[in-house]
Amino acid sequence: MQTNPNNTTTFSGQDLHLSYGGPMIVEGLTVTIPTQEITAIIGPNGCGKSTLLKALARILIPAQGKVEVNDINIHSQPTKEIARQLGLLPQNPRSPDAITVSDLIRRGRYPHQSIFRQWSSDDETSVDMALSLTGLTNFSERPIDELSGGQRQRVWIAMLLAQETPIMLLDEPTTHLDIAHQIEVLDLLKELAKRNNRTIVMVLHDLNLAVRYADNLVAMRDGKIKTAGKPNNVVTAQMIHEVFSIEAQILQDPVTGSPLCIPMMKST
Question: How many Cβ atoms sit within 10 Å of the Cβ of residue 66?
């Protein structure tokens, strides 16, 4: 894999046309993901958010266009090579029965192993670091089934960290979590992007959480990007109307100073 001269990993999708064998869900979409920041993809249900993430993750092959890491098409490279660059946390990941925290995290080291390179001290160091960064060291031998929802998400994130990819893709990482666990997971991702120079792309449904935690927003509707950029530039009453078809007031978040969307109630 070629490396960027500034030791950063570039990531983009160009002229993407995406479908599941039927009508195009995404058509003619181009996106460049800012390096070492958090980008949140937002938009209404069915707009193509998860479809775009699957294409970026090399799960879905574009009917047209390409996804590139460091200016190289990801579909022209071996699977293990890409797995050392891109890590994916899908919606509702499922773990094998009775597996422990450390056993699942160890699976993140698979892309770094081969017939001639089995488990090593480097692998062990990566797993220990992932446990430490996610606050799971004391849970390493616990069965995942015994953990809370937020703790389980941290285990999956730790597995991505053990994979040691510069790019992490997460599809609705806060789904089915209560607000406390949502904040717990998003705080962790924010810290990882800041301290460990990870490029993080995530699909989020909650607009205000996306605005609070993301450095950049990509707002989609009907398979197209309506607008993209810094939250302060993107989140306006007009954007909310065009993307979500609702009226809203945009206030300033008293905690972060970022935009805060307050949907208007329909008159009765």
Answer: 16
Tokens of 112: 């770094």
Mean pLDDT (whole number) for 170-197: 89
Contact yes or no for 245/259 (Cβ under 8 A)? no
C-alpha to C-alpha distances, 217 to 43, 105, 118, 220, nearest whole angstrom? 10, 29, 40, 10
Reported as a single tens digit per residue, the pLDDT across 78-121 is 988 899 899 999 888 888 888 999 999 999 988 876 666 677 78
